[in-house]
């Protein structure tokens, strides 16, 4: 005896339906080689204000490039991690189904700037902790060499990068449990 259409269960998710396409997972029972439909993610409008801030930074950097190209590059380099962390904060809240107000958006960008400042401070401290002893060791030698100064500089830059990346990763926004 053949099962009636109402008795058919989707082999992917188990949902019972008389339809050829499962309303739960999107599997097509008539053509099982078609992959299940993927839910489209509602991105909302959060990305627009981040894109507007990024566009503003780019326009300001472009205008500043005519006067001081180095300052324009510095502005872009500093704005990139701030905007990336702000985007992560907004995405974490969106994934959890939490709304984000204008004040929370401003707070996210300010806190992201503070985290960049904290990472920069950690990098500067790590640079000083490594560079000062190595630099003194190079200059205390009877004949200081450029190779020793290059090694001291490279080690201090590496220590600064490691400390800065560690702080940014440590304070990167965590995933939020979904709100039902």
* SSE string, helices as H and strands as E: HHHH
Largest sheet: none
Structural class: mainly alpha
Strand content: under 5%
Which whole number gives the mean pLDDT? 82
Question: Which helices and strands, and how do they pair?
Answer:
Elements: H1 46-67, H2 69-95, H3 102-140, H4 146-170
Helix pairs in contact: 1-2, 2-3, 3-4
Brief summary of the model shown:
The protein has helices at residues 46-67, 69-95, 102-140, 146-170. The protein has 180 residues and is mostly helical.
What would you note in describing this structure?
It contains 4 helices and no strands. With 180 residues, it is mainly α. Helix 1 runs antiparallel to helix 2 (69-95). The longest helix has 39 residues, at 102-140. It starts with 45 loop residues before the first helix and ends in a 10-residue tail after the last helix. The model has no long low-confidence stretch (mean pLDDT 82).
Keywords:
mainly alpha; 4 helices; 63% helix
